[in-house]
Amino acid sequence: MKDRLQQLKKEFAEIVDHVVDRETLEELKTQFLGRKGKLNGLMKEMANLADEERKLVGAVANEVKEAIEAAFGEAECRVSKASMASSAAKEWIDVTEPALHTRPRGTLHPVTRVQQDLEELFTSMGFMVLDGPELESDFYNFTALNIPPSHPARDMQDTFYVDGRPDTVMRTQTSPVQIRGMRAYGVPLRLIAPGRVFRNEATDVRHEHTFHQLEGLVVDKGISMAHMKAVLEVVAQHLYGQDTKIRLRPKFYPFVEPGVNGEVTCYLCKGQGCRLCKHSGWLEIFGAGMVHPNVLKEGGVDPDVYSGFAFGFGLTRLVMLKYGIDDIRHLESGDLRFLKQF
Amino acid sequence: MLISKKWVSEFVKLPPALLDKELASRITLSTVEVESVKDQAFALKHIVVGIIKSVSTHPNADKLQVCQVDIGDTPPARGGARGGGSRIVQIVCGGTNVAVGMKVAVALPGAWVRWHGEGELVEIKKTKLRGEDSEGMICSSQEIGLSQVEGDHEIRNLGDVDAKVGTPLAMALGLDDVIFDIEHKSLTNRPDLMGHYGMAREVAALTKSKLAKYEPKKITTGKGMNLNVKVEDAQACPRYMAVAMERVIVGESPDWMKHRLEACGVRSINNVVDVTNYVMLELGQPMHAFDADILGGEIVVRAAHAKEKITALDEKTYVLDSSMLLITDGKKPMAIAGVMGGEGSGVSEKTTKIVFESANFNPVSVRKTSMKLALRSESSARFEKSLDPNLCELALRRAVELMRKLSPGANVASKVIDVYPHPPKPSHVSLSVDLVNQRLGTEIPAKNMEEILTRLGFAVKAAPRLPPSLKLRGAGKPGATGGRVVQVTIPSWRATKDVSIAEDVIEEIARVWGYEKIESTLPSFSIVPSAQDPLRLLVRDIRNTLSVGLGCTEVYRYAFVAPDMLRTLGFALEDHLKLANPLAEDRPYLCQSLVPNMFDTVAINHRSFPVVSVFEIARVFMGNRKGDEDGQGGTLPAQPYHLGIAYSAQGDASPIVELRQQVETTLLSAGFDVSFHEMEKPGMWMHPSRATEILVNGKKYGMLAEVRSDVAQTLGIDRRVAIAEMNVTMLAALERASTIFTPIPLYPDAKRDIAFTVGERTTAFALESAIRKASTLLVEYVLFDVYRGKGVEEGRKSMAVHMAFRSLEKTLEAHEVEEEMGKIRLVLEEEFGATIRS
């Protein structure tokens, strides 16, 4: 009995070395280790042996079984390695071939991208992101922002008015959200208000009647122009890199005093002067200033106690600079040849 | 606006080391934007006045002459030459009009010229032309940039120029000025800078230089003309000054005056008109000169009658209305006040008596008149910015002074008229030194503030004691400057518009001190997190799902829509808000739905893209629903954010299926329970049997439909288009489901498939609902195949579904699953007339 078991082990070892494919190996497995296989056949015969004998033979049988299984495992490894080598050639595919019939890649509008990026920056600094109506009251868009009724900004040439509603305008700026924000949330306050604005302006390569701005407002006790400069520096460096500097020069806006125009060192030439910055080394990207006391009052804030600064970025301009877009009209064109690039 | 450096230098002594570029940059950083600096002489370097001494034919070239030219013996290279002496050089020249004795412009080696007025600039060098030495070039106007006239190839004859040989051409022609071009808009609030004296005052403050006083001679009253002025509307004309002069000889102005005017872009007309323009450019005060014989002795300033007409100096006739102000002779209009003079009453060659007008007009009235008439002038541009009424007198004195200089026999022939009923009182501002530093974040010493303000013309003195009840912003808390408070008097030229409160004065200090000197300091704030806007978060999620997840492209379109588009889609025009002054007459309506934008986006892209899959999130404008408050007790029209999605693919006969899936995925992943309900009354643009409502929690939040093919055809779209629209603002108000973990099941699923045929009109939704209801153990239901055609009866479809059953208590036995399947088969057969296939 023991001999026959050893014989079986030997027999398996001899055959298994010659097997090269998986099918034969599987057959062999059934033949030797299967339920009706050779090993099981011998094991069944063990039932007829005497107890003593059966113990001894059983030990051998187990040893043989383990040996066969081990040999089988080795063979399996060997066979699968060998078969990989042959299938490498058989299973070649063109890995550069694009997947067919997949869903196309969708894109976000470039303004959305830049806006989200800035929203993240500002929220990380604790700013609220607020929104306001686009069809705005004359009061919020002008009067509350210290723009008196005779001001040229209210001319029909600059502002879209609505039939039968003389007190509403398509907002010309995101600044009305300053007042809405102060009234709704009080002080201290940090907010930004990105959004769509409208000007009654003929469109060409550089002008659009519909474009996007990003407004900002900070109000608290003791807020100074030095604070404003620092916050705007953070934004400029976020947009154009750590070496970016900002420059302020006087500019009149009715809702701030002092009011400034903000420029950043041209990111293309690093301030050396190039075509993009019209050889000045500076790019004009925002307007800012200390909130006018009349505006604070309209927002329900006491200008004797609080002060603040406000700023506005031309979001559309930032987008055009970032992506090198040369014609503003692409942005609201709906043309997929443009939009699918982002 | 053009500013001449020479003119400014008459009033302020500029530091000699200050470069033009530096001055421009200082003005830009502290005052107004200088757009460009043009050195007139730069282009004319190394070009001098010469005289041709002899001309002989070139031995080797028929068309060339060899000239001997006297260029003086003080070449400009030595600098500052005034000409004179004599030095003869030989120059080969091709000009046909060269002649002995002719005074010409000679470009010497080192000069840059444009050959024959064409191509790039070329540097002149000493050379040989066909074997003959040539030490320069005799130039035509075009070659040295003095003429833009095409084909002007003749040598420039300088016979009329009074200059010795060797004089630099720039000097000889009076082109030795530097011109600063100031950006117009940046002057909006600084009317005081619209004249050279005002600019000089500013430059003096910026460079800490001395400013000369502006003191033209007082006018000595004359006799001979009885001049009467009546101002009917003192609101529209706060001040009117006039004076008559006689024995005026109208003629050409001297060169110095012409050069000044031309440098500032103003054409010389005659000495009288030039004087008024000169004064305007110098002081910023527009003036007018009437022919006194035409005007007579009466001036009435009154409102125009309705439909009254005037022909202005531009030879156009304007029809006026009663809001416009006129200068009349008591009967006929003579000028549109502050805008333009009348054609008939101006100064002509025959004029010998004149009346100078120097008045102040209301800025709003002038602006409105000029806008209504579409007539803008140098005068209206200044008046509409609010001028200082004190300028009237200085301007009149200066005009008389200049007129007497230009026409020496002229003298004053009347009293000086000055109608000035309400001269404004000087205004003051109390200012705390601490407030300035606190607001700027600086430590500017009080004496520096005082110096800046004084140089700008503000008077500064210690403030009178304030009554204790009057609180002064920023005062009272002694800082570095001990809480010092001063009283600042605003100069009249700044008081009209720009400066009235402490903050305005702070700006004056800050800009002259220099914004670059303010050191950045980040503010410190509480760490309380900012409030979140659920709408913004939802919009962001939707954008990501649609673009990243579902391959849609986001578009931005206009808020304005054309009536044709609305009619095509069957929207009622009268429901829409309409712009009163649309830019494009064809797009006057405010959109109430994003469907027009979506439809249009498919129309413009479908020819280039086999698949158009786009979305837009934007506000729509609902005239008949109430939205946000308007700040004055009323409400604005509602402006909810909508989401529009469009899908159209070549060859896809039912794009609504894909779009429905996009909508479902978008809403599900945003945490909404979504279902669809066939629309009972589809809109006019919708395919009558392919339109559905989008329900969330069983309530309508939007719609989804295919566009009728006849509607699509109107925009040239020959394939099927599906459009969905939802109200995102409403969705954002809903609670969004957050995922709660359910334990991994302890017992395995039993999976079964079933296939059956049902009638075509049986909806997937109805089947699923019924089957789910039929079995309590059913945990999963996935429709994986729908088949029509061969093997399936006409009017029926074959459907196949994966199902999974599970119990929470134990592993299901085969017979228990079979029992559930039995219930399902029964429902299918009895409720839906299904034939079970497997």
What does this structure look like?
The complex is a heterodimer of chains A (342) and B (838). With 342 residues, chain A is of the alpha+beta class. Chain A folds into two domains: 2-90; 110-339, BirA Bifunctional Protein, domain 2 (2-Layer Sandwich). In chain A, 41% of the residues lie in helices and 20% in strands. A seven-stranded mixed sheet of chain A has the order 1-5-6-10-9-8-7, with helices on both faces. Chain A has a three-stranded antiparallel sheet with strand order 2-4-3. In chain A, strand 7 (246-250) and strand 8 (256-265) form a beta hairpin. Chain A is elongated and about 120 Å long. With 838 residues, chain B is an alpha+beta fold. In chain B, the strands form twelve sheets. A seven-stranded mixed sheet of chain B has the order 28-31-34-38-37-36-35, sandwiched between helices. Chain B is elongated. At the A-B interface, helix 5, strand 1, strand 2, strand 3 and strand 4 of A face helix 2, helix 8, helix 11, helix 14 and helix 15 of B.
Note the total helix count of chain A: 11
Domain count of chain B, please report it. 6
Indicate how many domains the architecture of chain A comprises: 2
Strand order of the largest sheet of chain B: 28-31-34-38-37-36-35
Mean pLDDT of chain A, to the nearest integer, reads 91
Report low-confidence residues of chain A grouped into runs of 5 or more: none
What is the CA-CA span between the terminal residues of chain B? Answer: 89 Å
Sheet-strand content of chain A, in percent, reads 15-25%
Q: What oligomeric assembly is this protein in?
A: heterodimer
Just name the CATH architecture of the largest domain in chain A.
2-Layer Sandwich
Large-scale geometry of chain B? elongated
Structural class of chain A: alpha+beta
Number of strands of chain A: 10
Structural class of chain B: alpha+beta
